[in-house]
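Sequence design from tokenized structure. All designs in this work follow the same two-part layout: the structure record, then the generated sequence. An example of the structure record is given first.
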């Protein structure tokens, strides 16, 4: 996920909350009215965090330039239902140390939509905050996991060498921190670069990245777009490949590499190689900077069920909708994981080791890979976007959210809830859900 080094200072959040409380309440009332009628006044000033993101995450194409990702002309891949009531499954909330139910988790983590599939069938499908089945939602850094899968397709076609240097594809990055790094370093977040991924600071590298693409108000020294910004990254840290360093800009460099090596616009590439084969219900789209470059690391938008189809395809080893969309050996490579020593050397390890399965985890092709004893892989995005794929129980969990702040507590809660569902559906928890006789309240028509 896009993270603030997972040590976001509590006092900073409290100060921001205190100074913004009156405007927050006022905008909250505007958002509530907008959900019922017209759109609120949302701009680059107030779209990112709550309460503005309760509306904006479902309408990003009305705020920023975007490129459509065509679903193709084929039929929609049918999804079957085997509904079960998961609301009473409980778990220990790692933030409060109190027992919490899945029903309580929805509210506690600003849930917009929630999907669980087991054995290829929908077990739970819920929508909140005015979201509907046909609505798209911003994926944030779950977008990275999609590009990780897409990269495997292009590599299998022989059009991209994972061991080649990044600058062999993008000579514009010579002299930057990417010089000497390989495509594999991009995919595994092992580029030896100093990059401050801190949302609490308007001087951080991540803020400058968002500034370059127009996601925050542009200052007088902002780079003119994504590609120009990437070339300004000069601060090295150690050796390429030595440790896991989560840097969002790496995925944007990867998107640039894919476009260059295939001579294809990123949105068209996703459509041709992935989206048009998935049997998606709706077109997806990707957000752009001001000069038509795809903001690949956080910018994909799609519906809940279509992200469920994508996740089910990954669960099934790349086979979905009657065809092998992604090479099975690439999905197996993700599940096998990356370098566990690089994972433990990274600055984020002190946080991730507290999450179930990740003390001995790793990172591979933009997926978090749990300890083999747990067996799941995870995609995580800012403000509560989540995929958990568990092959042993044949289960996927997908969540859209709009967290009000970048503090990590809500991530911990929803991840623990997702794992509790996986355990319950596998029969390992003694907390098995009840079969549901009729449609769920939020099941679509």
């Amino acid at each position: 996920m896009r993270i603030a080094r997972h040590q976001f200072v509590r006092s900073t959040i409290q100060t921001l909350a205190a100074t913004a409380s009156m405007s927050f309440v006022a905008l909250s009332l505007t958002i509530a009215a907008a959900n019922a009628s017209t759109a609120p006044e949302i701009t680059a000033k107030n779209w990112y965090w709550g309460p503005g993101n309760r509306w904006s995450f479902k309408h990003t194409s009305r705020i920023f330039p975007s490129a459509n990702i065509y679903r193709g002309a084929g039929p929609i891949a049918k999804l079957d239902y085997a509904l079960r009531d998961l609301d009473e499954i409980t778990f220990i909330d790692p933030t409060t140390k109190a027992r919490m139910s899945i029903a309580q988790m929805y509210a506690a983590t600003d849930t917009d939509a929630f999907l669980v599939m087991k054995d290829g069938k929908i077990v739970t499908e819920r929508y909140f905050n005015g979201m509907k089945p046909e609505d798209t939602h911003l994926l944030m850094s779950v977008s990275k996991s999609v590009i990780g899968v897409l990269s495997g397709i292009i590599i299998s076609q022989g059009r991209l060498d994972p061991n080649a240097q990044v600058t062999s594809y993008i000579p514009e990055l010579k002299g930057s921190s990417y010089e000497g790094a390989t495509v594999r370093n991009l995919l595994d977040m092992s580029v030896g670069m100093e990059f401050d991924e801190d949302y609490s600071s308007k001087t951080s590298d991540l803020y400058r990245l968002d500034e370059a693409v127009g996601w925050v108000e542009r200052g007088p020294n902002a780079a003119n777009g994504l590609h120009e910004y990437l070339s300004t990254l000069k601060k090295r840290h150690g050796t390429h490949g030595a440790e896991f360093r989560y840097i969002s800009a790496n995925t944007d460099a990867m998107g640039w590499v894919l476009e260059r090596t295939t001579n294809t616009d990123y949105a068209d590439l996703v459509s041709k190689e992935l989206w048009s084969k998935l049997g998606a219900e709706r077109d997806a789209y990707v957000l752009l900077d001001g000069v038509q470059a795809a903001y690949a690391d956080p910018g994909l938008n799609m519906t809940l069920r279509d992200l469920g189809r994508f996740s089910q395809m990954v669960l099934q080893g790349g086979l979905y909708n009657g065809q092998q969309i992604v090479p099975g050996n690439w999905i197996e490579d993700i599940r096998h994981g990356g370098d566990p020593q690089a994972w433990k050397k990274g600055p984020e390890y002190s946080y991730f080791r507290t999450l179930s399965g990740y003390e001995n985890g790793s990172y591979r092709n933009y997926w978090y890979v749990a300890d083999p004893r747990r067996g799941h892989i995870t995609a995580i995005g800012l403000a509560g976007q989540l995929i958990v794929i568990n092959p042993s129980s044949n289960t996927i969990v997908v969540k859209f959210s709009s967290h009000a702040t970048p503090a990590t507590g809500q991530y911990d809660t929803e991840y623990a809830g997702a794992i509790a569902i996986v355990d319950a559906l596998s029969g390992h928890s003694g907390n098995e859900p009840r079969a549901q006789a009729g449609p769920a309240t939020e099941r679509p028509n």
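Residues 3-26, 437-445 have pLDDT under 50 and may be disordered. We note this feature because it recurs in several other targets discussed in the main text.
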